[in-house]
Amino acid sequence: MSTPIVVVDKLTYAGSLLNLAGVLDDARVTFVQADIADRDAMAALFGQHRPSAVVNFAAETHVDRSIDGPAPFIDTNIVGTFVLLECALALVRTMPAPERDTFRFLHISTDEVYGTLGAEGLFSETTPYAPNSPYAASKASADHLVRAYYHTYGLRTIITNCSNNYGPYQFPEKLIPLMILNALDGRALPIYGDGGNVRDWLHVEDHCGGVLTALQRGTPGEKYNIGGNSERTNLQVIEALCSALEAVVPSAQNRALAGRRYVDLRTFVPDRPGHDRRYAIDASKMQRELGWSPRHDFESGIRATVQWYVDNREWCRSVQSGQYDRERLGLR
């Protein structure tokens, strides 16, 4: 018998049932609209479904929004994680030994908890935490709670820290979909500071593969970094996007550009407050201990991502409608 899956989502501004199109037709999948910080709702959910594993993807994630208003990040990322841990612990204490011994609580985190790197070096699982934004601080707090529940209560937790994700279905506030959609519409491509901030880019399918691997093979109490081995400056990312767009929708055929090229839309703007200069992930533990490595290279991944957003403009319009007009955030 196939394993049933319960999907819990608050459906905030960035959440949409359009992202689950087709999935909800699967008899194994149950969707519940709820807030993970609602203890009564989560207790009822755990009592009804009695999960054998919890995978906590739920989070407020956009750094600029955390600068404008940190409160939702505290509520979801810290309080929500605490509530899930409490509900999981209460459930596990009612389980017979065989079920208790195979239970997993997998918490998805970010490389931003480690702070910023200089020109050299990589984040490893033992890198000290030094978060520099409210978002990163909220995720660091959640990580510490997850670790504590393993060491204090014996809850079988695992933490993964990933680098920047990209790919289909990403809400357009994030760098890559924002730049693609702005370019197609002939709008400015805002580049923070000098464009030299470096991120390691991980295709979402590789991230999902890494999460599943950690869930199936990871050791409770351990943490694993999941990276894409694809360091790029923001300026390099935008240039790659412009190049891919030229191949899919040549600028000469895009009336919104009024004779310009996509690269002509690049616009340097004041930097984000507290903007970390460089992130880079050492994923060798995942590769060595769990046998995972990314399958997508950055160039082909970007081309496929650009094609997806070009082909799914209606999805883009629908998920943004009344929620977000691709305006600059994080200027508080």
Strand order of the largest sheet: 3-4-5-9
Broad CATH class: Alpha Beta
CATH architecture: 3-Layer(aba) Sandwich
Largest sheet: 4 strands, parallel
Question: How many domains in all?
Answer: 1
Strand pairing plus helix content: what structural class? alpha/beta
**Secondary-structure element pattern, one letter each:** EEHEHHHEHEEHEEHEEHEHHH
Q: Indicate the low-confidence ranges by residue numbers.
A: none
Descriptive account of the structure:
The protein is an alpha/beta fold. It has one domain: Rossmann fold, CATH 3.40.50.720. Helices cover 40% and strands 15% of the residues. α5 links the parallel β4 and β5. α1 packs parallel to α3. The longest helix is centred in the first third of the chain and has 22 residues. The chain is globular and about 70 Å long. The model has no long low-confidence stretch (mean pLDDT 96).
Q: Which descriptors would you attach to this protein?
A:
11 helices, Rossmann fold, 11 strands, 15% strand, alpha/beta
Summarize the structure.
The protein has helices spanning 39-49, 63-68, 71-92, 97-102, 134-153, 175-184, 204-217, 234-248, 284-290, 298-311, 313-320; strands at residues 5-9, 29-33, 53-56, 104-110, 157-162, 164-166, 189-192, 198-203, 223-226, 231-233, 266-269. With 332 residues, it is an alpha/beta fold.
